[in-house]
Specification:
InterPro entries: 6hp_glycosidase-like_sf, LANC-like, LanC-like_prot_euk. One of its GO terms (biological process) is peptide modification. Belongs to the LanC-like protein family. The structure is a single chain. The chain is about 55% helix and about 0% strand. By secondary structure, it is mainly alpha-helical. The chain is globular. It starts with 12 loop residues before the first helix and ends in a 13-residue tail after the last helix.
């Protein structure tokens, strides 16, 4: 097995010593005293440069395509997982990110082929979200076909997305006697709205009318107020299977992050701000991390789906990032690879902070996590997937997410957490 996520040449003699010196200088510029993260990073004798990260990203993308797409030729189409989160559309998203970084028309053609295959399966999904449902298939399909110049197919996918928007449960709030569907990013209303925002960003504001989306925003706010009726300190609260999560996947961070992209009235904006301040008041005083759910005393998760990482990105959107980034630096060098709960996802917190502040230390910290991922990624993903799971090459739980992160390291000022940042 290669010592790094892709094959690299070993250093010899003076070159090795020079790399050690550069490594020490680099670490000294981005760490504090008694820094455990720096201790772990200091073992690496080779710090990847931009070209190395680019080559690693391309090679990872090619591996993802080989395993998730080309090797699936012997599998019945009905057996494929078409989602962006852990399935085949995540491969399409990775190829799209490669196209954005390199301009490769071959990647764009691959995207289109994968989208067409997944579109035939979209009707089987009851979910309407970007990451886990047919909303993501149609949204990414419309965008990719637009880049292809196939405006007829783009319009077809857009029409299918508009059909999804007619889902009766989307705008149904407690004032109509029911909650309709969940409000979270991964499986609920916020995930549908994110798909709509993705379309509008790439196709223009006029692609989807706001009067189609604002009733869904209103339903999310109404549901949050009903869920917070027993807590006067927190205006909005949501439950996923009975638990009041704070993180991005099923909790407040993801829902509020989406709401911050829409024009909110004075009262609505105030409730969003007060809810953010409530979450911030729950920060663990010793570590600076956030609990995974309201009332949970355990300080053991630093990742996008739970803990400090999603809070950094959401607070950046709200321009209240505070100390959250330090938590990710101190504790975010976890033993998994992916966007959801691994190093790649945590590193996006630094890219978000860099975009907000322009401070070079955050870009360097992202690169430091990238160096760790470059050297240890294969080892970590092999250990994580030793039980035979097929998620090793998926977007959110595997190497496809690492490939997207490597592409984003090349232009950190333009970086976007897949399925979360716009």
């Amino acid at each position: 097995m290669s010592p790094s996520i892709v094959e690299c040449a070993s250093d010899q003699g003076d070159h090795r010593q020079q790399r050690e010196e550069r490594n020490n200088q680099w670490l000294n510029s981005i760490v504090a005293d008694d820094d455990r993260t720096a201790t772990e990073l200091s073992q690496f004798m080779f710090i990847p440069d931009d070209l190395t990260f680019l080559n690693a990203a391309i090679q990872l993308k090619n591996q993802v395509v080989e395993v998730m797409w080309k090797d699936k030729g012997r599998v019945e189409i009905q057996e494929l997982n078409p989602t962006i989160y852990t399935g085949l559309m995540g491969t399409a998203f990775t190829c799209f990110r490669s196209f954005q970084a390199t301009g490769s028309q071959q990647d764009l053609l691959l995207c289109a082929d994968i989208v067409r295959a997944c579109a035939s399966l979209a009707h089987s999904s009851r979910l309407v979200t970007f990451l886990s449902g047919r909303g993501g298939i149609y949204a990414l399909g419309a965008v990719i076909m637009n880049y292809m110049g196939d405006h007829q197919s783009c319009g077809h996918f857009l029409d299918m997305f508009i059909e999804v928007a007619q889902e009766k449960a989307l705008p149904v709030g407690p004032e109509e006697g029911g909650f309709g569907m969940s409000c979270d990013l991964l499986c609920g209303r916020a995930g549908f709205l994110w798909a709509a925002l993705f379309i509008k960003m790439h196709l223009g504001e006029e692609a989807l009318p706001n009067d189609m989306l604002m009733p869904v925003v209103a339903a999310i706010l109404a549901g949050g107020r009903a869920g917070a009726s027993d807590n006067p300190l927190c205006p909005l609260m949501y439950r996923w299977h009975g638990t009041r999560y704070f993180g991005a996947a099923h909790g407040l961070a993801g829902i509020l992050h989406v709401l911050l992209h829409f024009p909110l009235s004075g009262d609505d904006a105030e409730d969003v701000e007060k809810t953010l301040r409530y979450i911030m008041s729950k920060r663990f005083p010793m570590s600076g991390n956030y609990p995974s759910s309201d009332g949970n005393p355990r300080d053991n998760l630093v990742q996008w789906s739970h803990g400090g990482t999603s809070m950094v990105i959401t607070l950046c959107k709200a321009s209240q990032f505070r100390e959250a980034g330090e938590v990710v630096w101190k504790s975010g060098l976890v033993k998994k690879v992916g966007l959801d709960d691994g190093v790649a996802g945590n590193a996006y917190a630094f890219l978000s902070l860099y975009k907000l502040t322009g401070e070079a230390i955050y870009a360097e910290r992202a690169k430091a996590f990238g160096s760790f991922l470059y050297h240890k990624g294969s080892q970590l993903v092999n250990a994580e997937n030793s039980g035979g799971t097929d998620h090793a090459f998926s977007l959110f739980l595997g190497l496809a997410g690492a490939a997207c992160f490597f592409f984003d390291l090349l232009h950190p000022e333009k970086s976007k957490f897949p399925g979360y940042e716009l």
